[in-house]
Design brief:
This protein is α/β, with parallel strands linked by helices. It has 11 helices and 8 strands. Helices cover 50% and strands 14% of the residues. The strands form 2 sheets. A 6-stranded mixed sheet has the order 1-4-5-6-8-7, with helices on both faces.
């Protein structure tokens, strides 16, 4: 993101943090703690703002190493910003924002601090935000207008261009973000640099969208007779089965199908016979 897009970056950060930010400066993405035996830290985005240093990570999975790695990033930032001769103090504020996928969590956003069992903070310096991206994108797929309006700056990050056109009708900053995405997508080199994780996430979002849309339709129809909650649950389960059948027809392996549908491998094996 270049200098001309700082207003877009501030729009995103203010929406997440619910704090006013007046200025932002890009910092070096690579941090070295001065120890040859310690891994260098390479961040997705690192910023200096008037409310503190902000480090941003996109976590495409919820594997066991992700949270310890992210904690090591915060520690590296703090150690690198306490200069020789300075005291360790509470003035060096560090905010980490994690855009996370694969969370088994019902909360859309969690905020973490270093504190004791009575919620008394041990230090004031560190704040970690974990954004449950799948929770936010589900608001879009289920057409939750109130939640979409409240969280446009987060939801826009996971939408395709055609969807962004719908979201951007009355929002100048969403329109600007869409314009930037159009520039990126028109660059032939863009697809060469897409990671396997990004490809997998797009597949997963597509499957999730179909599951929700089909599940809602079937679930709501049954809900008229059996109760909305039970009907919705059954509709989603049937959508998973239908999608698994389609993925089998397309030649995907059982492990991949189980990962993206949540169905048991044994059940998928039975479908393939």
């Amino acid at each position: 993101m270049n200098e001309s897009n700082k207003d877009l970056l501030i729009y995103l950060l203010e929406g997440i943090l619910k704090l006013k930010i007046n200025n932002v400066e890009y910092l070096n993405l690579e941090q070295n703690v001065g120890n040859i035996y310690v891994k260098r830290k390479h961040f997705d985005l690192f910023l200096k703002t008037d409310i503190g240093n902000i480090q941003v990570e996109v976590n495409a999975s919820n594997l066991n190493y992700v949270k310890p790695r992210n904690m090591s990033y915060i520690c590296a930032i703090y150690s690198n910003h306490v200069l020789k001769g300075q005291n360790y103090n509470q003035d060096t504020k560090i905010i980490q924002i994690n855009f996370s996928y694969g969370l088994e969590d019902s909360e859309e956003k969690r905020v973490y601090y270093v504190q004791d069992q009575s919620n008394k903070k041990y230090v004031e310096n560190f704040t970690i935000y974990e954004i449950n991206m799948e929770k936010y994108i589900n608001y879009w797929y289920t057409k939750n207008k109130e939640k979409i309006e409240e969280n446009k700056e987060i939801i826009m990050l996971d939408l395709e261009l055609e969807e962004l056109k719908l979201l951007s009708k009355e929002d100048r900053m969403v329109k600007k973000y869409m314009s930037e995405m159009e520039k990126i997508n028109s660059n032939p080199e863009f697809f060469e640099y897409m990671s396997a994780e990004e490809d997998n996430r797009k597949i997963e979002n597509s499957i999730r969208r179909e599951m929700i849309e089909r599940g809602l339709k079937e679930g709501l129809e049954q809900g008229l007779e059996q109760g909305l909650e039970q009907g919705l649950e059954q509709g989603l389960e049937q959508a998973k089965i239908d999608i698994a059948h389609n993925m089998l027809k397309d030649g995907l392996d059982i492990v991949t199908i189980a990962k993206y549908t949540g169905l048991a491998k044994e059940a998928i094996q039975e479908m393939s016979k």
